[in-house]
What does this fold into?
Amino acid sequence: MKPGSDPVRPLAALAAAALALGGCAAPRGGGGPPAAPPSGAAAAPAPPADPVMYHVLVGEIAGQRDALGVAVDHYLEAARRSRSPAVAARAARIAIYARRQAEAIEAAERWVALAPEDLDARQTLAILYVRAGRTEEALAQLRRVLAAGGEHAFDTVAAVLAREKDRARALAVMDRLRREAADRPQAHLAYARLALHAGRPEAALGATAEALRLRPGWTQALLVRARALVLLDRRDEALAELAQAVRERPKDWRLGLAHARMLVEARRFDEARAAFRRLDALRPDQPDVLHALGLLAIEARDWEAARRNLERLYALGKRTDEAAYFLGGIAETRKRYEEALRWFGRVRRGEYRLDAQVRIARVRARMGDVDGARELLKGLRLRNPALTVRLLLAEGEILSGVGRHAEALALYTRALERMPDNADLLYARALVAEKLDRLDMVESDLRRILAKDPDNVHALNALGYTLADRTDRYQEALGYIRRALELRPDNPAIIDSMGWVLYRLGEHERALEYLRRAYELSQDPEIAAHLGEVLWVMGDRPAARKVWESALREAPESEVLKRVLERFLR
It folds into this structure.
């Protein structure tokens, strides 16, 4: 058991070991009877012939009854009397758990004395010395660990020091050790890893530079260096260094995987996809690579590639629930509804299970069985009462999705009678009310949300956009949208709203700037409709047509696109 873990589990094996070690020896003379435990802790058993066993048993009973002070005292006494390293180790760990530092140090010192080759004993004593500010004594123990620890000894020591809450003190100890081994790249890398743990990426960067000077091209050092650069907001530099390393060592799997994942983090999806393809060619049928390729293909709306990679993943028997869920989503997007139902039905467990059931309901509604879909969702509500709101929202979305907006409105209204301040239900009802031209309800519901949560981004954006799109209260709309954009500056829907309200205010150049940025982030058909309209009004009709036609290919049934095309191209 590691320091800090639960010390009060039964230790029958240890008690038996103590008996074996003590044998039937008579009590030592002059010892006197042990002190009785405090009232309520434990009634001490009658002292047996073996005093070690006595203290072990009292310590165990006290620990099980949460009398940790009594447990520490008795186990420490057992450690003093016994020559068993296991008893001393147990005493040290209980004292650590009870935060009795002096007793923990005494027990750990006894442990080391009884088992001088036990590296766990020396590591435990070292960290206790660090906590007590006894740096030189800690260093002496850690040097012994390094001497006996083999190739990964510095990583072992860094992991030990990472347990220390005072990260600056731990890092200072590690710095002493690495300077003593300045010619060993492992020492600098271990320090760099500990520096990252301590929130000191600049120190990690310096240490990895030294590690790479001693061992050029070392993959592990390059990866730690890249992470330090990211934490210093130098992601592009990190990516450039990793890309160069990959070009130099194209068969280095670990390096290539780290580079591909960092490209995903940077949202450079096309480059990430190419990087994962190279990995797939290098080592086919790796689950993580197939998973990434599938999701990146979905992001690119390359449905066939997504299907192919996710089916490969499913065939491997790895991440099958997740693969089946996304394969169902691809089939649904392509209107292959029977296929979608088959895949969603294969999601048996995990975080996607409930979502798959909701998607089954939605697909059934799209196939015309709206009542069956609603019955499925009602059954899910009965079995999952804690998810009532989520499932009601799904039912309302199904109704609205097939044009039954009034029924969706009634559903949300009934739910709000029971949960009048639920923000999710208010927001959903506002969206449906807008489709029914109930602008009074839209504004009322969104203002109710904002009364309780003034920084609710979705409500701010929805209210601002509705006022800009459906009324002439443009300045008021601008205020709501501006606040939403301050809270979520990279949200494409809010950026689109800002572009739209500026268009309504006649600021076409500024509107175009926002709408182009929104469209770069998301090729949503509504954003495309807005961007095309502004381009058209500004006289760039070829560009407007190009945007609309591209969006229409991806979303041929988009009502907002159809309406804008009827207005400008009829």
In short: Residues 51-64 form the longest helix (14 residues).
